[in-house]
Amino acid sequence: NIICETEVGCPCLTDQDERAAELSREQNEKTIRSTQTALRNFREFLISKYPSETREIYIIPCKELDAYLASFFVDARQKDGSEYEPNSLANYQCGLERYLKEHRYGYSITRDKEFKRSQEALKQKQMELRCKGKGNKPHKSMKLTFADELILRKRGLLSRYNPEGLLNLVWLNNTKAFGHCTGFHGSTLKWGDIRLRVTETGLEYLEWMGQDGSDGNAKIKRTGTDSRVYATQHAPQTCPVQDYKEYAQRRPPAMRYEDAPFYLSIKPVVNLAALHWYNCQALGKNKLAKMVKTMCEKGNIPGRKTNFSVYQSCSTLSEAQSNQLVLICNNLSQQAAQSVASHSSTGNFIVSASYDSSSDTA
Asked: Are residues 177 and 250 located together in one domain of the fold?
C-alpha cells in the first residue's frame, strides 16, 4: 500500500523485541561456534602431540596449560598442513579464554602473568607469519563494480523478468540504499520495514522504517533523506521503486503483511507468465549471506565477491553510466516480452532448483 507522506502517526511494530532477541541469538550462535572451533582444534592438537593428556583443559594447572598453549601457537597447523593466519590464532586464544571463563578457571590466558609464555609465543608467531606474507587479507572481498552489474543484468541475474534476477535486484537495491543505516539487517528484514510512500508532489519513494531508541517497539518515520530512495521517473526501467513494486506483485498475497519476511524463497518450478513466483517461506539465511557470491559465480565474474562488496561499490552513477544502464534494461525488457509471448501457448517454465527452500539448511 502507498502511504501519503503527510499521514499522521505510525503503526506500532509488535515484534521488535522478538527480532532484537533473534539478532542477539545469532550473535551468540557465532560466538558459540567460534569457541567450539577453538576448543576442538586445541584438543586435536593435544591428542596428536600429547596423547597422554586427557584432562579437561579447565582442570589443567596454569603452568602446564601455559606450556601446552605456547606449543599450540607455535606448532599448530591446518588440516592441509598450512599455517594459520595470525588473526586465526588470536581468535583461538579468545575462544579458549571464553571456554575457561565459563568453567570458572582461576586465570586469564590473555592477561595474567601466569600465561606470559603462551602470550609471548603467540606474539612471536604472529610476527613470523606476517613476515611470511600472512595476514595481508588474501581473502579480502573485491568491490562490485558498475561493469560487474552490467554483466549481471545482461545475463539475467539482476532482472525484473525472472524470479532469481528480481530477488537479487531488490536485495541489491535495499543494501545499497539502506545498508548504511543503523539497525538495518537484511537477514531479519520484514516486509513492513520498507514502506512505499509518496510526496505531496506525487513522487514515489521507498523509506526504511528505523527503530526508535526510546521505544524499542515503535517504528519511526525519519525526517532525513538518508533512509529514503526516490523513484527515477526519467528512467523507469532502472527505477528501484519500480523494482520494489514488481517484487510486491510477485509475492503471494499471504506474504504482504507487515511482519512477513522480506526475502522469500523461489518456487522450485516457476511459470514466468504466472503472477506469483515465490513461496510463503523466508529465503534461508545461508543463501542471503551468499547473495553476491552466488550471482557472481553464475555470471562468471572473476575475483572474490561477497555481500560486503556492495558496501565498497559506488552507489552514484555518472550520466553516461545511467544512460548505458537504461539502454541495456530497455533491450532486456523487449527480449523478455518477446520470450513470454513466444512461449505463451506452451507455457514458459523455468526450474530454479538452486533456490529450492527445502535444500536450505539455514
From this structure: yes
Sheet containing strand 194-198, edge to edge, reads 2-4, 194-198, 204-208, 228-230
Do 91 and 203 belong to one domain? Answer: no
**Does residue 161 surpass a pLDDT of 60?**
yes
- Report yes or no on 200 lying in a domain: yes
What is the total count of domains within the chain?
A: 2
- Alpha helices by DSSP H, listed for 76-145, are 86-102, 116-131
The answer to whether 263 and 355 are in contact (CB under 8 A) is: no
Q: Beta strand pairing status for 269-271 and 264-266?
A: unpaired
Distance CA 362, CA 350 (A): 24
Last residue of a domain, one of 106, 132, 158: 132
Distance CA 271, CA 56 (A): 58
Dump pLDDT digits (tens) for 50-88: 999 999 999 999 999 999 999 999 998 888 888 888 888
Residue-wise pLDDT for 302-339, tens only, equals 888 888 888 765 555 566 666 666 666 666 666 656 55
